[in-house]
Structure formats: structure tokens, C-alpha cells
Amino acid sequence: MRIPAHAVCTAIREDIVSGVFEPGSRLTEELLARRYGVSRVPVREALRTLESEGFVTTRRHAGACVAEPTEQEAADLLELRLLLEPLAAARAARRRTEGHLRVLRGLVRLGQERARRGQGEDLRSLGGWFHETLAQASGSPGLIALLTQMRHKIAWMYAVEAPARPVDSWAEHAAIVDAVARGDAERARALTVTHADRAAGAHRLRVRISQHAVNTASGPH
Question: What H or E segment, with its residue span, contains residue 63?
């Protein structure tokens, strides 16, 4: 059975984000095909997709390599998120379905319960599902795709500290859902701006990116 390129793409992306393949390391079609048990054709297609997303770059005489993001590129990602997540929330207030609201409210209930109990690992996953569902509720395929790609890249470039007061963070999520449920686009946008701005302060560049920035700043090699 032929494994589709998008499944191979997901597997390679996950290995890049988790650090299995480090920035600058080569990605040969032969190695990847052997690792994932596929032919070289879906690997080639996957690498083209990952290059368009910014995870892979092609170098002369070296071929495909894991990209080496700079601090500026990482900072730009958080700035873009501050623009796009509030936009998604505003659109969700106009376009959400009852199904979206049920999922969002369920996630908020679980998040508030886990926050009170101090179950931090559960909160990380729940927070990701919350923001993914909010994006889906926007009804904008292009915006959803951008936010999904951005979440992958932020997870790759940043380590995220747990909020000092997770109960407050989930209270912010609850307020966003209330605004979306009422169809109040401007309030949903404003609340998401505040929430995303606060969350940005918990992001810390991973050492590998900081080190790369130092190396590139030291002059030609």
C-alpha cells in the first residue's frame, strides 16, 4: 500500500520539531525513505512541501537540509501570531457553529478543572486544542492553514514556560469563548490580543536557535 506524501511530510515535520533532525542536518531521500518505510517518491514530494513551509532548505552540493532559523525569523513568528490569532477569533464570532461552541466550552471546562488541580501537562495539550478549534471556527481555510503552520514552527523554535497562574489563563480562554458565542467580534479580537500578548512573554528561544544567531553574527566562515 502506497503511503501518501502528506503522511510522510507530517512524520518528517514532527521529527524536525522534536529535534530528531537538528537545524543544518542533511535530509537525504534514501535515509528518509528507509526511516519511514516508503519509496523515495513521497519523500521527494514531502521535502518540497516542507521547503515551502520553511522547515527545509536546499543547498548547493548538499541537497535538502533542515533550515536554520534566525532569532529575527523567530521573533517575526510571534508578531504574526499577534495579528492572526485575534483575526481568527473575530471571524469565529461571526462564523462559528454550535458544534464549535460545544467543543470550545468543553475544552474550557476541562482546562479550568485541570488548572485547579495543577495538571500542567494536560493543560499544554488542552491549550493547543483550544486554539486549533478557535481557528477552525473562523471558517477561513487559508487562515486556518497559516495558523496551523505557525503553531508547528513556534513549537520548533520556542520552549514555552507554563503560565504562573494557569487558572487566570483559562479564565481568559473562557472570556474569549463567551465573546465568540455572543457574536461580539471586536471583543473576541481584543481579548485574544491581550491573551496572545501575555502568552508571548512565556516563549523562550531554544538554545540551538540562539547559538545559530551568535554564529551567523560572528562574520563569514
Answer: strand 63-66
